[in-house]
Specification:
CATH class: Alpha Beta
Distance between the termini: 26 Å
InterPro entries: Acyl_CoA_acyltransferase (IPR016181), Bact_Acetyltransf (IPR050832), GNAT_dom (IPR000182)
CATH architecture: 3-Layer(aba) Sandwich
CATH superfamily: Gcn5-related N-acetyltransferase (GNAT)
Strand content: 25-35%
Organism: Catenulispora yoronensis
Keywords: Acyltransferase, Transferase
Largest sheet: 8 strands, mixed
Structural class: alpha+beta
Order of helices and strands: EEHEHEEEHEHEEE
Helix content: 10-25%
Number of strands: 10
Radius of gyration: 16 Å
Number of domains: 1
CATH topology: Aminopeptidase
Number of helices: 4
Protein name: GNAT family N-acetyltransferase
Length: 190
């Protein structure tokens, strides 16, 4: 099912996004999208790069397949003009939806695409999953990214999780101080 999300005060191209649920056929494209948004030289074209903090991969085929077809999990794909420009994962975890694997093509960052994708994920969490909150983990060292989420209503919980050092499925750290911070957004009761 494709859906257009009306959003005001954004780059007009961002509001042209069409959303659909990813299929297993999308997995290779989604792996490439996530990698391009966070790792390597291509990621430096956008502002979400982690290239100064981590080398190696951000995700792999097995992780994206699990996000696409796992129980309680859904990958949302954002397309513009028939081309995939963004994605994110929502996983139903009982009292909240976990938001992750969020990526916007580096050349499309900064024009409101991320805001529209996040709004769609929140809509799906509220209306389709029926949860009262969205939770995520962000590298604590990404102050700019955390500030972006805070401006969209997410709250820093102060809860941290250690980075999985030694597990190259998550990348090769370039520093020894990485950790994740948990952010949460509770929806207003209607």
């Amino acid at each position: 099912m494709r859906q257009t999300v009306p959003v005001t005060d954004l780059d007009a191209r961002a509001t042209e996004l069409k959303f659909r649920t990813a299929t297993l056929a999308d997995v290779p494209l989604l792996v490439a999208l996530v990698e391009s948004a966070y790792r390597g030289e291509s990621s430096r074209a956008g502002w979400t790069t982690e290239a100064d903090l981590l080398d190696g991969q951000r995700t792999d085929v097995a992780d994206v397949e699990a996000a696409v077809s796992g129980v309680g999990s859904r990958m949302i794909v954002g397309e513009r003009g028939g081309e995939v420009v963004a994605c994110c994962q929502l996983q139903h975890r009982g009292v909240h939806a976990y938001f992750g694997m969020f990526a916007v093509r580096p050349g499309a960052q900064g024009g409101g695409v991320g805001k529209v994708v996040l709004a769609e994920a929140e809509r799906v969490a509220r209306e389709e999953l029926g949860v009262p909150a969205v939770q995520m983990m962000v590298l604590r060292q990404r102050a700019d990214l955390i500030a972006w989420y805070v401006r969209r209503g997410y709250v820093r919980t102060g809860v941290t999780q250690p980075f999985p050092y030694g597990d190259e499925r998550f990348g090769r750290p370039r520093t020894e101080v990485l950790e994740f911070e948990v952010l949460v957004k509770k929806f207003a009761e209607s």
